[in-house]
């Protein structure tokens, strides 16, 4: 029996942003009235403190103030998701695990909750997480003609999809939304249970006086079908119909027109606004809207292009208004054969349903209203929904833990690689390979970091890539004399980082391998956590983590599970320090010496992925990257990146051809890949160019002035991986593209 229930949401009364808040109100009421202890967790920017708690019987409402340092690195929406997971963690540590956690799909707020669960982090690893579908942002953006590939919108869409894939259970309020989601290749195999959203009609009122108004109630948004509706009404007005259409709801941005929807509608349909056929009243307070529906509205049109459930339809029914609903609204499924449901792409279908509602007498309307009330009670009544939901949740609780990591996409290449036998592989052993070239005593700090690791089974291999610095050679000699447990391999010629890593791998005896630069550091539990994941999930071949910069820079690099197509656009994992199954590295990941200027580890990741060898990120800072003035990365300039990306595309032509359209759109939306750090941020500079705020015309004049606003922004980010070049080189490059 479900007793303790956590509900994660971005909307909850008294703050209404749409259907999610209405869903939460009814769900909480349904559960608490039946003895379930519900804890609602949501952000509230209006809080004076960091947290507030309200308790009423079986209900607790935790509101937290969003914000904190991590938002600077994750971006706002991903930062919000991580903060949700932190609030849940603190509650669990104090009170123990709930029976189940339910989270909305919208904005992917459970992304880091699930990421930490699958990374086997306590206390998340034992959670049961249910995803309830409303209408995810990636679908809204698709039908709103929003820029799907622009950061952070693209990243949030990917997070939403992954949450749906990774949840222990997924509930949809309609068959329609289920079918819509399964059109996406990434989600076609997801098991989705259809359980209607709960709704309790609290006393319907059918006034006897004549009601005449035709309303559209909802946001002025493309996905809501507002344009299609007005076009249909214009056809009717041109036929001689005189019924006006009242538009009630908030305004939204119409992306492809670059204007507010209300402004665009008033310009395009100015004649009909002027003549009183179209009346836009904006958003009405809930009590005023209810009075309006009860006293004046006869019909309400719900013409959405895609909608999971639509509470407006239920509110129309509750207040005696006849809903005329498009066949792409999930709630049409509960209206039954008598429902006034029109085919969205068929004007005559709309005309027929509207004409019936206009001509229907009081008796017919009363009968239709009563029929609708019975349908709502039968499908959405608390007893029915509660029984279905509890039965489903009980089944989820008894499901075995997944032993397969839920990746979003799969890719299989036609290439065939001969597998090495790896006869010298010792079960459970981790081989740590440290390429070394003229790094002197920095090596001691790296070795100390490795030796303090909590993972017990490990060997250390230092590959001397023909160092020439006397001090560095002295360090190696000291190690050879005092540390027989460290294997030192001397190369006769300096051949670069790629071949140094490969050499160490050939000598390694471990089942697992990790490459560390001779100046990097790891947290004590990094190897232990990574190998636990590799032992748990048979479909995971390498594991990375978040990264912290030190010495020459400060800040963090937030990394992500490498997924196509984004990984081809920009490296999303700390590839220089991943823990890898050695067999997979030898078979598919050997470093290419042609990548002599760098990014050989990025190339390795792409090689592994295209052979079906997947990687994951532990969402914790477990790796420390030393930023030195003379490091390879610090010597990069934009032309280095252009050359290395050219090599990557040549080496992986099949992949880049496969995802060419998406990669083209990612670059158009966000600018060059080497100017990206975290896809959770808006691509600030590039979008200033697209908006016309900054000129993108290339100029040879070095003295171009950079806008002060941009200069201040860059000051905050300088030294972080966002630009990846020295301040001097970065400023010189910016001067060439900015006016």
Write the layout of secondary structure elements.
Elements: E1 4-8, H1 19-32, E2 37-43, E3 51-56, E4 59-64, H2 71-74, H3 76-95, E5 100-104, H4 111-118, E6 129-132, H5 137-143, H6 153-166, E7 169-172, H7 175-181, E8 193-194, E9 213-217, H8 226-239, E10 245-248, E11 253-254, E12 259-260, H9 261-268, H10 270-274, E13 278-282, H11 286-295, E14 297-302, H12 311-318, E15 322-326, H13 332-335, E16 340-342, H14 347-359, H15 362-380, H16 382-397, E17 426-436, H17 442-451, E18 458-464, H18 470-482, E19 486-490, H19 497-507, E20 510-515, E21 521-522, H20 526-536, E22 540-551, E23 555-557, H21 566-569, E24 579-581, H22 582-589, H23 600-610, E25 614-627, H24 638-651, H25 653-658, H26 660-670, H27 684-690, H28 708-717, H29 727-737
Parallel strand pairs: 1-2, 1-5, 2-4, 5-6, 6-7, 7-8, 9-10, 9-14, 10-13, 14-15, 15-16, 17-18, 17-20, 18-19, 22-25
Antiparallel strand pairs: 3-4, 11-12, 20-24, 21-25, 22-23, 22-24
Helix pairs in contact: 3-4, 5-6, 15-16, 22-23
């Amino acid at each position: 029996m479900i007793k303790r229930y956590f509900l994660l949401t971005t909307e909850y009364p008294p703050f209404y942003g749409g259907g999610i808040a209405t869903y939460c109100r009814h769900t909480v009421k349904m559960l608490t009235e039946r003895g379930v202890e519900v804890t609602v967790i949501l952000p509230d920017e209006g809080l004076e403190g960091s947290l507030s708690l309200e308790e009423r019987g079986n209900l607790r409402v935790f509101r937290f103030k969003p914000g904190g340092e991590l938002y600077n690195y994750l971006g706002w929406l991903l930062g919000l998701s991580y903060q949700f997971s932190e609030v849940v963690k603190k509650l669990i540590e104090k009170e123990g695990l709930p029976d189940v956690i339910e989270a909305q799909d919208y904005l992917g707020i459970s992304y880091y909750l699930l990421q930490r669960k699958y990374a086997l982090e306590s206390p998340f690893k034992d959670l049961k997480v249910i995803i309830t579908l409303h209408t995810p942002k990636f679908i809204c953006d698709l039908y709103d003609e929003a820029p799907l590939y622009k950061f952070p919108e693209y990243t949030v869409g990917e997070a939403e999809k992954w949450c749906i894939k990774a949840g222990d259970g997924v509930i949809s309020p309609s068959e329609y939304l289920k079918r819509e989601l399964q059109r996406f290749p990434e989600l076609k195999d997801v098991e989705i249970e259809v359980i209607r959203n709960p709704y309790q009609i609290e006393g319907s009122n059918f006034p006897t006086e004549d009601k005449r108004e035709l309303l559209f109630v909802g946001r002025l948004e493309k996905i809501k079908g507002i344009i299609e509706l007005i076009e249909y009404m214009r056809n009717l007005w041109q036929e001689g119909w005189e019924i006006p259409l009242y538009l009630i709801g908030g305004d939204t941005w119409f992306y492809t027109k670059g204007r507010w929807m209300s402004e665009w509608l008033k310009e395009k349909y100015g004649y009909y606004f002027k003549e009183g056929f179209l009346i836009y009243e904006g958003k009405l307070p809930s009590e005023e809207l209810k009075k309006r529906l009860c006293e004046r509205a006869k019909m309400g049109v719900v013409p959405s292009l895609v909608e999971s459930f639509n509470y407006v339809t239920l509110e129309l029914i509750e207040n005696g208004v006849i809903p005329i609903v498009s066949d792409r609204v999930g709630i049409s499924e509960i209206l039954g054969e008598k429902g006034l449901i029109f085919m969205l792409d068929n004007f005559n279908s709309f005309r027929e349903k509207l004409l019936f509602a206009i001509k229907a007498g009081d008796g017919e309307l009363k009968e239709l209203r009563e029929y609708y009330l019975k349908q709502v009670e039968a499908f959405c009544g608390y007893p029915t929904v509660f029984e279905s939901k509890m039965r489903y949740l009980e089944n989820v609780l008894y499901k075995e833990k997944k032993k397969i990591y839920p990746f979003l996409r799969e890719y299989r290449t036609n290439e065939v690689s001969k597998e090495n036998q790896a006869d010298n592989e010792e079960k459970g052993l981790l081989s740590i390979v440290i390429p070394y070239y003229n790094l002197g005593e920095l090596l001691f700090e790296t070795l100390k970091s490795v030796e303090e690791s909590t993972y017990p089974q490990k060997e250390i291999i230092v590959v001397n890539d023909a160092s020439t610095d006397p001090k560095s050679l002295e360090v190696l000699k000291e190690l050879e004399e005092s540390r027989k447990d460290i294997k030192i391999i001397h190369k006769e010629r300096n051949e670069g980082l790629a071949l140094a890593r490969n050499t160490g791998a050939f000598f390694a005896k471990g089942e697992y391998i990790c490459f560390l630069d001779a100046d990097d550091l790891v947290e004590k539990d990094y190897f232990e956590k990574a190998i636990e994941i590799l032992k748990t999930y048979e479909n995971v071949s390498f594991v990375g983590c978040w990264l912290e910069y030190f010495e020459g820079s400060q800040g963090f690099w937030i990394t992500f599970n490498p997924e196509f197509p984004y990984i081809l656009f920009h490296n999303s994992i700390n590839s220089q320090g991943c823990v890898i199954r050695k067999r997979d590295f030898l078979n598919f990941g050997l470093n290419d010496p042609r990548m002599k200027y760098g990014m050989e580890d990025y190339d390795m990741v792409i090689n592994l992925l295209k052979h079906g060898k997947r990687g994951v990120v532990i969402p914790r800072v477990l790796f420390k990257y030393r930023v030195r003035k003379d490091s390879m990365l610090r010597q990069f300039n934009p032309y280095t990146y252009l050359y290395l990306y050219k090599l990557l595309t040549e080496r992986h032509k099949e992949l880049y051809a496969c995802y060419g359209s998406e990669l083209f759109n990612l670059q158009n939306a966000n600018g060059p890949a080497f100017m990206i750090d975290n896809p959770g941020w808006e691509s600030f500079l590039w979008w200033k160019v697209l908006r016309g705020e900054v000129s993108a015309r290339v100029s040879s004049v070095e003295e171009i002035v950079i806008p002060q606003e941009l200069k201040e922004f860059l000051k905050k980010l300088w030294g972080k991986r966002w630009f990846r070049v020295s301040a001097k080189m970065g400023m010189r490059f910016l001067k060439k593209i900015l006016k």
